């Protein structure tokens, strides 16, 4: 802000501000010879790029590069004190891919992401369409919908852990009392069910994000389209398929791609509920990366796991960019 | 016309916040560079009432040595990350508290100073804790007090059933079965997918003659079979694969478990309920004649390599002070932990009889890193993986550890 106002006052009364900012003035002295004017201009352009470039380097490029180099080193607790991390080539990647958890973690990540997205999206769009109607307390209920988003995940996963407890959890007690199940289900203690439970909780966490974005998208669809459609007999499901869905497609693709990227890296929900257990039933790429790095202190192996994860995310990012370009071409 | 040359300045100004952000990261981190006689201290006692008791001990020693202290509390789950971060930025504190199984890991980095160079005597301490604090024949830390595991029994339920506390695994199974009723289980323990699960398995493993460097042994399988039998018989919940030790304590307090394996640090919580009458015994042995061996828990205080020799010597004096007899007894009594100087055991038990079981247990307790050193975290992961495989029926007790070892 301060620099902008300097610029405007400068234009109005040059002598004052020259005295007020002698150092600035000397740095920006107008060029003497006209033929040298082009150079400062190019520097100007470059300097404009510098802040953004520095930012991107410090917060995007550096971590990624560091993560890649780390995965090629034997990076342990000692490295932090001595700074020594011997290069080991692809040994960490061999450790990762030959781990008996590589296949299961990959599969679990895929199931977790697909299941979470499907659930979040279907419920999200249903609720978004529902909230388009006018009814009393609409706004209030819609703001309540944001609750799962506002709660810290550590808090909500602790709550879910007690809800899903096999013996005293309220879910099993409820299902038993209405006669849906005969014996309690080990939501978090049965390896065959645990992944499903973790997905269900993650769906709950993700619904507000989907509703908020999809509801916003629905608001942008002009009311006239529905009125015109209704005249031609398109109401209810027909209106949804032929008016809502096509108009919502750009928003849908954003929601889905962001959803994939957010869900692939989910760690807190799983750590809070099962810690990757029982019997490794909820191990995902993100959990493996975390546990190798911060439980076993094998930072090299941990970063190799996370690079696998980054690679998967990258595939989806490329798909997103391609689909976007096609949309622009159309 | 002179507007354009201005722009570089604007662009330059825009970088300033970035540069400032780069400088400011130093503040708030405890460093060795504090003033003359101020010692920086990092520990993980951030919860009351522990924090209060530890601060009292720290202040006592600060007064005794007439030094100022600048103490930072870091939540236990973040401590190792914080320590690694501090060691790479050369901002380790003058006095650093570490959980004892992490000591060898940090000592192996060269980040800690051996205590013998400051002329500190390690005589009279329980051998288990010295073993935990030793890396390559040098002692790097001392603990004022330690803890371990035992079997807590709900006295009311036990008496009502006309039983006595179990001393063998067979008795443990029959007693647990007898005390199981309705929605109450006979026994609760933690076998979750963290190091807590592994820590709770160690007493069974060691008591049965097993060793953490060979977990695919028959002794280990036998110990695991006990847990499997208890769960399969319905004497312990299938949820043990999810329970932390806090959950186990909650089950016990809620009357949903008649016995539990847990540590003395839970006693203040248990005492909060006057209707709960309980007693403790050592963890049962497989066959009569075996000695119950439990793992040693607790925190050790160390002197990091900060490069400031005078401060390090002062820090060593400080550690000598918090591990002296008076502070050991004060901390042990307040926190329900056991003094590490074995000579204090009788005096301590006389003043706090409820701690007698645990005090006896500490005399034979082993450290988790004594045998494996920096290899312990990996083995702990393999142990809890094995537990989970067997307790969920994914593998038999005989094959579970071999599977876990295969990675």
Automatic annotation (TrEMBL), chain A:
UniProt entry keywords in alphabetical sequence: Cell membrane, Membrane, Transmembrane, Transmembrane helix, Transport
Chain intervals with Polar residues compositional bias: 1-11
InterPro entries: MetI-like (IPR000515), MetI-like_sf (IPR035906)
Coiled-coil region list: none
Listed GO biological process terms: transmembrane transport
Region (Disordered): 1-38
GO cellular component assignments: plasma membrane
Residue ranges crossing the lipid bilayer per the database entry: 46-65, 110-131, 143-163, 193-215, 251-273, 304-321
Family annotation (Gene3D superfamilies): MetI-like
Protein family membership: Belongs to the binding-protein-dependent transport system permease family.
Protein name (Swiss-Prot/TrEMBL): Sugar ABC transporter permease
Automatic annotation (TrEMBL), chain B:
Residues annotated as signal peptide: 1-21
One GO BP: maltodextrin transmembrane transport
Keyword set, alphabetical order: Signal, Transport
InterPro entries: SBP
GO cellular component labels: ATP-binding cassette (ABC) transporter complex, substrate-binding subunit-containing
Molecular function terms from GO: maltose binding
Family according to the record: Belongs to the bacterial solute-binding protein 1 family.
Name of the protein in its database record: Extracellular solute-binding protein
């Amino acid at each position: 802000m301060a620099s902008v106002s300097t610029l405007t006052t400068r234009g109005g009364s040059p002598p004052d501000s020259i005295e007020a900012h002698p150092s600035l003035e000397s740095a920006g002295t107008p060029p003497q010879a006209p033929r040298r004017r082009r150079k400062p201009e190019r520097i100007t352009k470059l300097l404009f790029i510098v802040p953004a470039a520095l930012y991107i380097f410090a917060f995007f490029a550096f971590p990624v590069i560091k993560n890649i180099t780390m995965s090629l080193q034997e990076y342990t607790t000692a490295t932090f004190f001595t700074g020594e991390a011997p290069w080991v080539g692809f040994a960490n990647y061999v450790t990762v891919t030959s781990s008996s958890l590589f296949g299961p973690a990959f599969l679990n990540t895929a199931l977790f992401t697909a299941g979470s997205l499907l659930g979040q999206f279907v419920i999200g769009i249903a609720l978004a369409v529902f909230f388009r109607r006018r009814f009393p307390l609409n706004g209030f209920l819609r703001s309540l919908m944001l609750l799962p988003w506002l709660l810290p995940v550590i808090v909500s996963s602790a709550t879910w852990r007690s809800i899903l407890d096999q013996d005293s959890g309220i879910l099993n007690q409820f299902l038993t009392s209405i006669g849906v199940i005969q014996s309690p289900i080990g939501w978090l203690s049965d390896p065959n069910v645990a992944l499903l439970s973790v997905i269900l909780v993650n769906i709950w966490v993700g619904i507000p994000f989907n509703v908020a974005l999809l509801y916003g998208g629905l608001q942008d669809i002009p009311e006239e389209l529905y009125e015109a459609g209704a005249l031609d007999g398109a109401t209810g499901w027909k209106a949804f398929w032929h008016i809502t869905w096509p108009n919502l497609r750009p928003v849908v693709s954003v929601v889905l791609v962001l959803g994939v990227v957010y869900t692939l890296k989910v760690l807190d929900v799983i750590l809070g509920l099962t810690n990757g257990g029982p019997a490794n039933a909820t191990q995902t790429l993100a959990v493996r990366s975390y546990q190798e790095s911060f439980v076993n202190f094998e930072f090299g192996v941990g970063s190799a796991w996370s690079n696998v994860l980054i690679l998967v995310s990258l595939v989806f990012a490329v798909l997103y960019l391609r689909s976007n370009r096609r949309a622009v071409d159309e | 016309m002179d507007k354009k040359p201005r722009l570089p300045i604007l662009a330059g100004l825009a970088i300033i916040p970035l540069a400032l952000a780069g400088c400011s990261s130093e503040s708030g981190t405890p460093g060795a560079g504090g003033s003359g006689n101020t010692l920086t201290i990092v520990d993980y006692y951030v919860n009351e009432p522990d924090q209060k008791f530890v601060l009292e001990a720290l202040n006592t020693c600060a007064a005794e040595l007439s030094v100022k202290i600048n103490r930072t509390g870091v939540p236990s789950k973040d401590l190792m990350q914080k320590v690694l971060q501090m060691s790479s930025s050369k901002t380790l504190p003058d006095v650093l508290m570490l959980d004892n199984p992490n000591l060898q890991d940090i000592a192996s980095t060269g980040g800690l100073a051996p205590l013998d160079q400051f002329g500190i005597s390690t005589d009279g301490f329980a051998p288990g804790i010295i073993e935990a604090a030793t890396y390559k024949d040098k002692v790097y830390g001392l603990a004022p007090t330690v803890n371990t595991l035992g079997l807590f029994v709900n006295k009311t339920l036990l008496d009502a059933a006309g039983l006595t506390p179990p001393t063998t695994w067979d008795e443990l199974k029959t007693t647990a079965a007898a005390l199981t009723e309705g929605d109450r289980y006979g026994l609760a323990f933690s076998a979750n997918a963290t190091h807590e699960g592994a820590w709770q398995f160690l007493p069974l493993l060691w008591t049965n003659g097993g060793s953490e460097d060979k977990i695919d042994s028959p002794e280990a399988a036998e110990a695991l079979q006990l847990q499997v039998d208890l769960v399969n018989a319905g004497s312990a919940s299938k949820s043990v694969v999810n329970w932390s030790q806090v959950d186990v304590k909650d089950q016990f307090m809620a009357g949903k478990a008649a016995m539990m394996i847990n540590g003395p640090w839970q006693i203040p919580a248990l005492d909060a309920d006057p209707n709960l009458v309980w007693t403790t015994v050592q963890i049962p042995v497989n066959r009569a004649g075996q000695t119950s061996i439990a793992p040693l828990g607790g925190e050790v205080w160390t002197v990091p390599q900060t490069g400031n020799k005078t401060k390090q010597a002062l820090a060593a004096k400080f550690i000598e002070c918090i591990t002296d007899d008076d502070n050991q007894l004060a901390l042990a009594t307040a926190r329900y932990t056991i003094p590490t100087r074995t000579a204090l055991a009788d005096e301590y038990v006389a003043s706090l009889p409820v701690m007698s079981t645990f005090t006896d247990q500490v005399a034979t307790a082993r450290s988790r890193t004594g045998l494996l050193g920096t290899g312990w975290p990996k083995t702990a992961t393999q142990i809890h993986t094995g537990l989970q495989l067997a307790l969920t029926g994914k593998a038999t007790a005989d094959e579970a550890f071999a599977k876990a070892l295969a990675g």
